[in-house]
Specification:
Length: 283
Amino acid sequence: MTVLCRRIVSSRWFDPLILGVIFVNAVTLGLETYDSIAGSAGDELHRLNDLTLVVFCVELVLRFGAEDFNPRRFFKSGWNVFDFIVIAASFAPGVRENAMLLRLVRLARIVRAVRLLPDLRVLTVAVGRSIPGVASLAVITLLLVYVYGMVGWAIFNDHDPANFENVGQSMVTMFVLLTLENLPTYIEKGQELSNWTLLFYISYVLVASFLIFNLFIGIVINSMEEARAIELHRAERELLDEDEVNDERAHAVILRERLHHLKTAVEDLEREIEAQGASRVRR
């Protein structure tokens, strides 16, 4: 049974088939948002959703069987844990009675497509790896926006109250300037007050827009490299585990064959002893 499950899960058509079912689930979920379609074909859409859930349950059982029905090995993979939680949530008490929770659970099933697409899986891991660096960068950016917001409020409070009325509005203006949107307009309006205000905007653009965004790109690229290394290590570990399992099975087969031969030899020896005993009795 385990060999059959592993053969099905590792076949070329298995992952594309599950992706197709996830696509059908996504389309069905989207069609339910149209009142006209939900009113005319609501029952059919619900049955189709139940059918996709059955397919996902079968998939989960097959993946569990491919791990030799061993929970410790199955839940060693984070993707298997995620799949189990998403599928099990569909059977949680009260979910089917709550339309909002049911839609959220069905939406979570669509996210399962991440594990079936290697490149998307790498991107997901990269996003997770980049969170600490991005969080630190966000704190630095917030401090920078606050400092320049205070300076901008001190300079342009009377001249441009619409954008620098208080520190809050000034920080919003500085945050918008991170995208360089309407920068020439701000520079032109600042030069009406003094040409020295050009230094304020240029320094902010150089530090905030260029430096911060380049640091952000560097964090993401580094996280991508780490994610690829993790994915490669995971694939190699799975291959090693599979080889170990195959070696254990081969060893078990050899032991069973030896036991069979030993049992046959013992039975033959018992028959010979019984035959010799019978011949002596006749004498």
